[in-house]
Amino acid sequence: MYLSFKNKRIAQILSVLPNKEVLFEDEMENYNFTIAKSLKLKAAMGYNKRRIAEDGTTSSDLCIHGLEYLFNKDLLNKEEIDALILVTQTPDYIMPPTSNIIQGHFSLKQDMVCMDINQGCAGYVIGLMQSFMLLEQEAINKVVLLNADVLSPKVSKKDRNSNPLIGDAASVTVLEKTINHTEIVFSIKMNGEGAFALQIPAGGAKLPNNDQTAISEEDAHGNFRSKDHLVMKGDEVFNFVQSEVPPLILELLSQTHHDKEDIDYYMFHQPNKFMLQKLADKIGIARDKMPSNIVEEFGNSSGVTIPLNITHNLSNILPEKKLKLCLSGFGVGLTWGATIIDLDKDTYLNTINYKK
After folding, report:
1. Which DSSP category does 300 fall into?
2. In terms of C-beta density within 10 A (0-12 exposed, 13-18 middle, 19 or more buried), how is residue 221 classed?
3. What is the dihedral of CA 194, 272, 129, 13, to 10 degrees?
């Protein structure tokens, strides 16, 4: 499905990282693996260190910290916010919506839209799409898109498939109307038949958390996890990404009349370094045009890896020139999508640390 928008832009992107840093070597003893094999895994996947939230820190805490920073720096006016969108898999509560909690924290105006979206790896792309849809309305001139996940508590410390890569983070993206007529095109696809390739089995209405769901069991590969923990079928996810994402990107380039070389950077969701390098090769672009250092530095924070990728890698480049980016997210759902979008030279990019 293709969706097209005009007269809209990203004005600001702020990434928020927890202070707590965990090194891969610090947790090797948790895995049912030799040290030599663990270090080989680290080298292949690009694991190094990750940021995780302290106990009790929630998605709203990270988002509120980011918004407070923008307000205090006079980079964002509370009264101008017409919609507040939060994309997260880790809401503070089942109810009320976390976006409403954030709105109430700042006593934002009542004449606005608040919305929670339950999406993961492609969540940032879907959040942008929803934000641009809202900006189509005459009454909405500025949208704040929040993307946050605190998934580290949902991962077994003895699961070497997931634990070494999962990180926590949040982002604040400010979108607004503009007189720039550059077209922004999205391509989005869904396949619910593969939904259980990435899941947390317990905790919802189908299987509430209880004493039995908390019991850890060993899988065929020596990982220990319970039904309360994230389960990732790595082979299925890898094959899905390698088979479905390249044609989506190539079709989007064709649909928008772009050559591969027209794109300055391919800023993709970062599940791990190995997967991204293989993806770049399959699409047929240079690996240095698709940065793959976010998991290595901060961990895989689901959809937030895309805005973090931008703020971490492009903040020193953007003031020099306008950039044309291809953004893509893929994973939980199964969901995969992409957009081609320009970042103006005056787009504000920054990364900050969360402090309680």
Report:
1. B
2. exposed
3. 160
* pLDDT tens profile 224-274: 999 999 999 988 999 999 999 999 999 999 999 999 999 999 999 999 888
Residue pair 202/30 in contact by the 8 Å Cβ criterion:
no
The CA-atom distances, in angstroms, between 43 and each of 24, 37, 269 are 11, 10, 20
Contact present, 272 and 165 (Cβ < 8 Å): yes
Q: Encoding tokens for residue 109?
A: 């105006």
* Residue 294 one-letter amino acid: I
Q: Which of 306, 296, 307, 297 is nearest to 330 (CA)?
A: 306
CB 283 within 8 A of CB 249: yes
Question: What are phi and psi for residue 93, nearest 5 degrees?
Answer: -140, 160
Structure token pair of residue 220: 């065929």
Which homologous superfamily is 1-356 in? Thiolase/Chalcone synthase (3.40.47.10)
Residues 6+ apart with CB under 8 A from 356: 54, 57, 61
Comparing C-alpha atoms, which of 344, 310, 16 is closest to residue 172? 16
Q: CA-CA distance, 294 to 344, in Å (whole number)?
A: 23
Q: Where are the domains of the chain?
A: 1-356
Place of tokens 């205090």: 72
Count Cβ atoms below 10 Å from residue 185 Cβ, excluding itself: 16
Answering whether pTM is above 0.85, one says yes
Instruction: Show the CA angle centred on residue 209, arms to residues 204 and 213, nearest 5°.
Output: 120
